[in-house]
């Protein structure tokens, strides 16, 4: 049984790229000891693009990968794959990668009342067509073929993807997301447990009846992360890197 420890950090949807380096500053703060945690949960889409079979995605991410491996000497790190970063196992030896098929990651509290948590990036329990597309895109043979074409065309595919991502609005509001959150919660069959997701970037916390649902905002917005607290009830305390405006 996996344990969610008090003061664990949750980070979702940093969408790190050449123009957006907030997550790098966050990792540097962890290394310098300016912020502390026993556990770090990366909830997917930490990079705009990172895939093992896509060689053009490696060079930007390698300093992050090296530092994450080093930080595993101080804390447990779980990396839940998203729809922009997947097939990650071969990048890491110490970071514990949680693939799409192994999500949600199920944990229990380390003390107090025995609370249960379902953690996932958020791209599970979608309609069958989208699920098929997501699984197809993770196919190593397809990805190797696309990587070959990408190399032949001087990274035209990855450059197009990254350019579109740089223009993407990460801070949008989804109309009637509360209704979608209830639907999402029901699909987990959580029955009073917590469901925590990224992917949608909505920063919505629901705690009504048996429903306990938290959709994390994009880390890229205000460079904020969340600290899990047991008081004894569960709380998700928003934090920012030192020097950031509240």
The poorly predicted ranges are none
Terminal CA distance reads 36 Å
Strand order of the largest sheet: 1-8-9-10-12-11
What value does the average pLDDT take? 94
Radius of gyration: 18 Å
Q: How many distinct beta strands?
A: 14
Helix count, DSSP H or I runs of 4 or more residues: 6
Structural class: alpha/beta
- Sheet of most strands: 6 strands, mixed
Which outline best applies?
Answer: globular
Description:
By secondary structure, this protein is α/β, with parallel strands linked by helices. The chain contains 6 helices and 14 strands. It has a 6-stranded mixed β-sheet, covered by helices on one side. α1 packs parallel to α2. The model has no long low-confidence stretch (mean pLDDT 94). This is UDP-2,3-diacylglucosamine diphosphatase. InterPro entries: Calcineurin-like_PHP, LpxH-like, Metallo-depent_PP-like. Keywords: Cell inner membrane, Cell membrane, Manganese, Membrane, Metal-binding, Transmembrane, Transmembrane helix. Pfam families: Metallophos.
Please render the helix and strand layout as text.
Blueprint: E1 2-4, E2 9-11, H1 22-32, E3 39-42, E4 50-51, H2 58-71, E5 76-80, E6 85-86, E7 96-98, E8 105-109, E9 116-120, H3 128-137, H4 140-152, H5 156-167, H6 177-188, E10 194-197, E11 204-208, E12 211-215, E13 224-230, E14 234-240
Parallel strand pairs: 1-8, 2-3, 3-5, 4-6, 5-7, 9-10, 10-12
Antiparallel strand pairs: 2-13, 8-9, 11-12, 13-14
């Amino acid at each position: 049984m996996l344990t969610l420890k008090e003061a664990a950090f949750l980070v979702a949807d940093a969408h790190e790229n050449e123009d957006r380096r907030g997550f790098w500053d966050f990792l540097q703060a962890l290394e310098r000891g300016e912020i502390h945690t026993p556990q770090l949960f990366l909830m997917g889409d930490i990079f705009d693009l990172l895939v093992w079979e896509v060689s053009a995605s490696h060079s930007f991410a390698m300093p992050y990968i090296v530092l994450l491996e080093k930080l595993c000497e101080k804390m447990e790190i779980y990396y839940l794959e998203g729809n922009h970063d997947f097939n990650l196992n071969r990048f890491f030896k110490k970071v514990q990668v949680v693939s799409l098929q192994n999500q949600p990651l199920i944990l229990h509290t380390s003390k107090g009342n025995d609370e249960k948590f379902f953690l996932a990036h958020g791209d599970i329990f979608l309609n069958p067509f989208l699920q098929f597309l997501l699984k197809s895109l993770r196919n190593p043979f397809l990805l190797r073929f696309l990587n070959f074409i990408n190399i032949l065309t001087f990274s035209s595919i990855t450059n197009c993807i990254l350019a579109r991502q740089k223009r993407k609005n990460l801070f949008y509001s989804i109309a009637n997301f509360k209704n979608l959150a209830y639907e999402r919660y029901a699909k987990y069959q959580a029955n009073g447990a917590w469901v925590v997701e990224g992917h949608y970037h909505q920063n919505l916390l629901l705690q009504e009846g048996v429903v306990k649902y938290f959709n994390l905002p994009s880390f890229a917005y205000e460079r904020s992360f969340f600290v899990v607290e047991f008081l004894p009830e569960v709380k998700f305390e928003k934090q920012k890197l030192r020097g950031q405006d509240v």
